[in-house]
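Key result, reporting period 2: structure in, sequence out.
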């Protein structure tokens, strides 16, 4: 609701029309404010479209935002069966597209509108006095030239899909990586569908150890069964393949647990050639093959492949936020208060206590990160977390502090709870102790020091350091 001092409803610019950006818009509308959603792609859900072939590991009940659901129900929508698992394509067709086209949100979305910069009207980054009282200026390109709009608050929900990490083990592109782009794909190419012809009958290496790498490797083994001559190589930076097998039956997201278990079996059965300790340093050509090298000199080795799929995660793009005052964890590139909860150096557990406006706010008043981007480089983001984030953020923007502080979510456990691995350094071990670890579901208290799981909170209440798992 507009507050008494400003009868004009606030305008909230929402950057990105993915699941979380659209949910943010639904909450803004519900509170009587004006959302303006700017989406770079030609259609909403542009990032989800790139992985539309991938089955979600969480069922429908964890994929739908409540404010969005209320808008959809009012428009005569039939909700999908809560316990079924949609693909990315079904998420678009049965939820995101109806939300964007059949509810009042449709008048607030601008597609083909790539945000290029955000600033504060009349204030460069250095200037402080009176800064908080001025609106934001948002510049974007829509094919007709540069456009600009003003907004009272900004929610950056632009995700990370379009800024994948490179193959290079040191975080930089491997030498030669840029030159060999035509044989390299990032993320999760549709190897059984749209891009089948590119991979069938070829030797394909997949680099990475997360869910995207595993999903692609499983699909490539299916392709191998159907298309003779297909060979699958898993390039792993670490030395322990079993770390990628996940929580199995302990994962409350059963489909995610099953994915890890199915993958483990394929590796045990020798369907996938595994190269551990492979830290990509060079990529070049050897005749018709791509030569992917790890290390140099007498310790160096290489694989010769037709195609390389790089699934080493994603990183947020801050280039267009150069004029916004940001505070970010130096490693994870997320709001600092979130870092100990999601930093994979500290624990691999995906059980993250729900959080909202307080954790996601930035030194720039009225500016918030939400969705996948709010996790920076951490890989464990869940849509449901994002929906709770934007409920709280929008309450904060509306001036409803009580609702902003309240936590309305219990997240499913991953069952994958480990402390720092053998490669973690001592500083990380210290941080792990301070942060506690994982055991039991995420607690529902918003208190940042309480811990990341029920067992951790209980142990601290009993005067111990934390659950220590
Ligand atoms: C393969 C895969 C499977 C996943 N499965 C699950 C799952 O089962 N369950 C789950 O809970 N989570 C899952 N996730 C994680 C996460 O929930 C999704 O990535 C989700 O799409 C994140 O939503 P988002 O709105 O934050 O970002 P995105 O969906 O990435 O949306 C961001 C949007 O911003 C737009 N954009 C980017 N830059 C700009 C710009 N400069 N200007 C304007 N617009 C811009 C993009 O085009 C995009 O449409 C999965 C992720 C991946 C990659």
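The corresponding designed sequence is given below.
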């Amino acid at each position: 609701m507009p507050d008494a001092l400003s009868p004009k409803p606030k305008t909230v610019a929402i950057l990105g029309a993915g699941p979380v950006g659209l949910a943010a818009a639904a909450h803004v509308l519900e509170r009587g404010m004006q959302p303006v959603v700017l989406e770079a792609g030609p259609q909403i859900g542009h990032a989800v479209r790139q992985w539309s072939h991938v089955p979600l590991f969480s069922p429908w009940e964890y994929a739908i935002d409540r404010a969005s659901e209320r808008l959809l129900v009012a428009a005569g929508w039939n909700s999908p069966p809560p316990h079924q698992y949609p693909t990315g394509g079904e998420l678009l067709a049965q939820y995101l597209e109806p939300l964007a086209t059949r509810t009042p949100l449709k008048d607030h979305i601008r597609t083909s509108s790539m945000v290029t910069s955000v600033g504060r009207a009349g204030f460069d980054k250095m200037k402080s006095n009176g800064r908080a009282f001025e609106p934001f200026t948002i510049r974007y390109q829509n094919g007709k030239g540069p456009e600009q709009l003003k907004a009272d608050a900004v929610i950056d929900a632009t995700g990370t899909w379009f800024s994948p990490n490179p193959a290079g083990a040191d975080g930089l592109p491997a030498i030669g990586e840029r030159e060999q782009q035509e044989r390299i794909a990032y993320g999760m190419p549709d190897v059984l569908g749209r891009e089948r012809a590119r991979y069938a009958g070829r030797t394909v290496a997949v680099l990475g150890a997360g869910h995207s790498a595993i999903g692609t490797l499983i699909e490539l083994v299916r392709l191998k069964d159907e298309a003779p001559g297909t060979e699958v190589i898993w390039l792993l930076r670490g030395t322990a393949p079993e770390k990628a097998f996940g929580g199995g039956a302990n994962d409350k997201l059963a489909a995610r647990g099953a994915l890890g278990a199915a993958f483990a079996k394929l590796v045990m059965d020798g369907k996938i050639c595994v190269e551990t300790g492979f830290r990509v340093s060079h990529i070049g050509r050897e005749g018709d093959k791509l030569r992917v090298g790890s290390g140099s000199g007498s310790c160096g080795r290489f694989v010769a492949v037709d195609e390389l799929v790089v699934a080493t995660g994603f990183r947020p793009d801050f280039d267009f936020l150069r004029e916004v005052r940001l505070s970010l964890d130096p490693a994870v590139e997320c709001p600092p208060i979130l870092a100990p909860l999601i930093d994979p150096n500290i624990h691999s557990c995906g059980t993250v206590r729900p959080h909202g406006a307080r954790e996601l706010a930035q030194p720039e008043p009225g500016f918030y990160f939400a969705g996948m981007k709010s996790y920076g480089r951490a890989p464990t983001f869940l849509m449901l977390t994002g929906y709770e984030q934007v409920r709280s953020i929008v309450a904060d923007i509306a001036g409803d502090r009580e609702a902003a502080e309240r936590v309305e979510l219990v997240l499913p456990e991953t069952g994958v709870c480990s402390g720092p691995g053998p490669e973690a350094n001592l500083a990380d071990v210290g941080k792990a102790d301070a942060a506690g670890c994982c055991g039991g579901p995420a607690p529902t208290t918003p208190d940042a020091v309480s811990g990341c799981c029920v067992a951790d909170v209980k142990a601290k209440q009993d005067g111990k350091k934390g659950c220590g798992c």
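The two ends are 44 Å apart (CA to CA). Residues 415-452 have pLDDT under 50 and may be disordered. This case is discussed further under Risks and Mitigation.
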